[in-house]
Predict the structure.
Amino acid sequence: MANLSVSRRVQSLKPSVTVAFMNRAKAMQSQGKDVLSFAAGEPDFDTPDIIKYAAINALTKGQTKYMPTLGDPATRAAIAKKLTEENGLPNCTTDHITIGAGGKHSLFVLAHVLIDEPKPGEPQQEVILPVPAWVSYAPIVELAGGKIVEVPTTVDTAFKATAQQIKQAITPNTRMLILNSPSNPCGTMYTPDELKAIGAVVEEAARTIAPNIIVLSDELYEKIIYGGIRHFSIGSMSQIAERVITLNGLSKAYGMTGWRIGYTGSSGEFGKKFTNAMATLQGQMSTNITSFTYPSIRAALTQCAGEVEMMRQAFAKRAELINVRMGKLPGIKNAKATGAFYAFPDVSAYFGKTSKGGRKIDSAMSMSEALLEESLLAFVPGEDFGGCGKNHVRISFACSEEQINKGMDRFAEFLSSLR
């Protein structure tokens, strides 16, 4: 029995640090401890009733059987309409839509559809990733056989890579560029002009050095914006539209994290080819998502603009509050939150100090550990987000203004107590 083991690919896989700290906070709360958790990237709003009743009605009417792998035609058509009219994707039809069990599942499937493991003697296909970035991009790419090429950003540039940086990172082995705007974990977003400049670089690279380059545009937080920057879908650029896969879902904007609904949209002939490949692979994995949730997708996309705007306004107030509170903490460098619901402050000015409990603070991880154990405050350490993330912590402000103020009070007290 001692020789039995699990696969090497799983043995080498890092658990999600976000999930780890969220689960630890929940466990401590269940023990009666007054933990204030800022770990989960999960809106505190309930799913709108319109969405709930759409699923309930479908369930009571017997929509409980298998469905087409990528979703029923009516729901895929609704998503295609949304992507065409709201995001400006050209030539996006029902045949260009895939629906999966959450954005992460859709990302996993598309990575395995687009990335090949190298044959003996061949180089790995490269995936360009501006960092810091969401913790799951790199592991999923690497599981598919790809190699991550990091493009570093900093708090001083609002964690945005320039078109020139992207250009310098592209090689003949480049297969994919991942863009996430608004950003998890950074809480910032690219302007339309910045994305258009990156799109021009991709167009040039496709003609010269990287003919197989694809852009994955993760737009899960597209509706949670409040910094005066207009959301822009890079897939709307006609010159590269067929090279762009747009990833989205219902988790964040509609308060539906537990529903596990993600989708992709694409354009043109390659988009259809990609979609068919997604169907083949997903058909050997999960097949369709829960059958009675499809009417809820249509309800969310067509009937919930008011509820989405209410939540956006609440996030805007919370962002303003956390921006102000962060600005008053000595030694903390923070980029103004403009999208999503995260702050990602640089806390490295406090490295080398010691907490009241005798813990040496020499990293984002050690600070997060001390904050949780000594101040009952759950942040996510930034090491696994890559790049300069090792000097940062992620703070999700998807919670009440009261909790934000209490949490920032505890954080300020903790920082002032370090010696």
